[in-house]
């Protein structure tokens, strides 16, 4: 999808300031209020903007552990993959799941309150998800960049 200058600027501003008023957004991107509002609505309708949310400071709410968990499945059975993904979807501590190339099948980003709870999550739940053969965990020692903003062409 190609975006004109105004759409790129709207998307850029909304990625960092999702609660900005339409009046302020229009002023920032050099449009009048009505055309700006129509463009934002069109970007929402087209699915370019898929939602708005508050970004929480995970440490301030007690989530001290960030781990990346590599998951290898026993086999590429469609039913087991669907069951595995359903379990991943239902686990609130798994905040991202990526199917990946390479030596394992999935990469999970997990946040947790403590190492004890993370250990329980892995040993009592993730390792028992359907089809899981093995997992390997890597821990984030410090977050150096976390923007969430996507580059716009």
Mean pLDDT: 95
Number of strands: 4
What distance lies between the first and last C-alpha atoms, to the nearest angstrom?
10 Å
CATH top-level class of the largest domain: Alpha Beta
Query: Count of helices?
Result: 5
Question: Do you know the CATH topology of the largest domain?
Answer: Alpha-Beta Plaits
Strand order of the largest sheet: 2-3-1-4
Low-confidence stretches: none
Report the portion of residues in β strands: 15-25%
Which structural category fits the helices and strands?
Answer: alpha+beta
Per CATH, the superfamily of the largest domain is Lrp/AsnC effector binding domain/regulation of amino acid metabolism (RAM) domain
Summarize the structure.
This protein has 153 residues and is α+β, with helices and mostly antiparallel strands. It folds into 2 domains: 5-45, Arc Repressor Mutant, subunit A; 65-139, Alpha-Beta Plaits (2-Layer Sandwich). The protein has 5 helices and 4 strands; from the N terminus they run αααβαββαβ.
Would you kindly provide a written description of the structure presented here, covering whatever features stand out?
With 153 residues, this protein is of the alpha+beta class. The protein has helices at 5-16, 22-29, 33-45, 78-90, 115-125; strands at 65-73, 94-99, 106-112, 132-139. The chain folds into 2 domains: 5-45, Orthogonal Bundle (Arc Repressor Mutant, subunit A), CATH 1.10.10.10; 65-139, Alpha-Beta Plaits (2-Layer Sandwich), CATH 3.30.70. Helix content is 37%, strand content 20%. It has a 4-stranded antiparallel beta sheet with strand order 2-3-1-4. It starts with a helix and ends in a 14-residue tail after the last strand. 14% of the residues are buried.
